[in-house]
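Q: Structure tokens for this one, please.
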Amino acid sequence: MIDVPKRALVVTPHPDDAEISCGGTVGLWTSQGASVYYVLCSDGGKGTDDPGVTSEALAKTRHQEQLDAAATLGVKEVVALGYPDGELEDTREFRRELVRAIRRFRPEVVVCPDPYRRSFYYHRDHRITGQVTQDAVFPYARDRLHFPEHEAEGLEPHKVGTLLLWGAEESDSYVDVTAAMDLKIEALRCHKSQLAGLSGENVVTWLRGFCREAGEKAGFEYAEGYRKVEFRTS
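A: Here is the predicted structure, written as tokens:
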């Protein structure tokens, strides 16, 4: 089981990834008083097969869809980094932006993709996001001599207690999202540009099946699973 944190930060590669992977967890936490924040890493401007849509137009659409989905789940703020879809890199700049968010929001828990899957195809942006987020959590956000320029912004070092990695090949921790399942579905439906080829009922059936499978492993009706990494904070 995973306790409800006071503050949590979700780092998502593209618009809709968080709703699919941890939307039930976010909705459950916010309903119980947690302050949850998003960092949206890429603009999502490549996710279409429509020949009449430009990358710029799609990015604008998906940004608004992410804002709508986050509002549905009760997320307090979405920080959009605006990197081009498919072009995330493990750079100092990317790491600095994630460290800035951690030091600004001071979460107890950070949630992001597991970068180390081997048995299933995985979008490159997910791998990079997970890797850079882990590094940002530890040791970069913790150690004051990493990105000392943050001090001029009034941001102090911060120790994150728990990292939850979604999409792990072997989850070891689960959140019972049965009570938040309808809210998770409502949030995913905000991403209309990505669901255009699916009927509403197909989306519901797929998402419920995804969470039911995780729930069977944990003894819940519906669940979201994670690989949990804990850090010493004292």
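A few notes: The chain has one domain: 7-230. The domain at 7-230 is CATH 3.40.50.10320 (Rossmann fold).
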